Amino acid sequence: MQTPNALARIKIFADGASLPALLELAQNPAIAGFTTNPTLMRKAGVKDYRAFAREALAHIVKKPISFEVFADDFAEMNRQARAIAAWGDNVYVKIPITNTKGESAVPLVRELTTAGVKLNVTALCTLRQVHETAQALAGGAPSVISVFAGRVADTGRDPVPLMRAALEICGAADRSIELLWASPRELLNLIQAAEVGCHIITVTHDLLKKIELIGKDLGEFSLDTVKMFHRDAADAGYEL
User: Fold this and answer.
1) What's the DSSP call for residue 92?
2) Cα(240)–Cα(155) distance, integer angstroms
3) 237: exposed, middle or buried (Cβ count in 10 Å: 0-12, 13-18, 19+)
4) How far apart are CA 210 and CA 107, in angstroms?
5) What does the pLDDT read at residue 2?
6) Over the stretch 179-234, which tens digit does the pLDDT of each residue have?
7) How far is residue 221's CA from residue 34's CA, in Å, rounded to a whole number?
8) How many CB atoms lie within 10 A of CB 122?
9) φ and ψ at 109, to 5 degrees?
10) What is d(CA 213, CA 195) in angstroms, rounded to the nearest whole number?
């Protein structure tokens, strides 16, 4: 099992779209970058995509941050990607691996990376997708492949072997391609991603609050739990 110090080998990207939280985390040296997506933005109540990005980039000027296209037509994805890329040198454009019809975005990925657009290819769940994407990104602009290990785990499959194989595929195609462990479900996933050798993991704000628990004494944790039960029963005024 990794020690907390060994976690320094993996970059932690904050995943969210709460502007106050993003701006606060931008000052945290433990946070190496940021990712967003339309679903997170909608949940956070973002109404104006450009205005949100503009405000975020006014404060996040050095750390990488990913913004996703939301078109379903590849020609419009292309246009949106180039517009987003122009927002800043630290901007990565998130391109979904397919459109909603299941049509591959790999040809678009190749065109954009060759044109110098920094990409974060997202929503991958299979090794075939990783292989095709890595081949498309090879020799292009700086890039990230986001494999949704958490969603893989949601199906009852162990994502660790898949992520190990994905890392080998990326390295064989182009050692500059970074592999990102996406959609973590628990703090253990951070340890697993570090052990695999993933370059990046996205961590939600809720999980970020738990990082201080890494390595916590289990006897102490047990006592804390007992105290919580006792305190909550007392606060609720329960009687028998």
Assistant:
1) E
2) 43
3) exposed
4) 40
5) 44
6) 999 999 999 999 999 999 999 999 988 888 898 898 899 999 999 999 999 999 99
7) 31
8) 24
9) -55, -45
10) 18
β strands within the chain, DSSP E: 11-15, 33-35, 65-68, 91-96, 119-124, 143-147, 178-181, 200-204
Sign of CA dihedral 15, 127, 120, 63: positive
The residues, any chain, with a CB within 8 Å of residue 238's CB and separated by 6 or more, are none
Please state, in angstroms and rounded to a whole number, the distance separating the CA atoms of residues 128 and 82.
Answer: 26
Q: Specify the length of the chain in residues.
A: 240
- In percent, how much of the chain has pLDDT > 90? 91
Side chain identity, residue 191: I
* Domains of the chain, first to last: 4-213 (3.20.20.70)
Q: How far is CA 76 from the centre of its chain?
A: 24
Give, in order, the Cα–Cα distances in Å from 232 to each of 210, 218, 223: 21, 21, 14
Both tokens of 122, joined, read 């997202």
pLDDT at 139 over 60: yes
Structure confidence by residue, pLDDT tens digits, 37-78: 999 999 999 999 999 999 999 999 999 999 999 999 999 999
As a three-state string, the secondary structure of 131-192 is HHHHHHHCCCCCEEEEECHHHHHHCCCCHHHHHHHHHHHHHHHCCCCEEEECCCCCCHHHHH
Residues carrying an active site annotation:
94
Summarised one tens digit per residue, pLDDT across range 85-95 is: 999 999 999 99
Among 29, 17, 27, 28, smallest CA distance to 56 is for 17
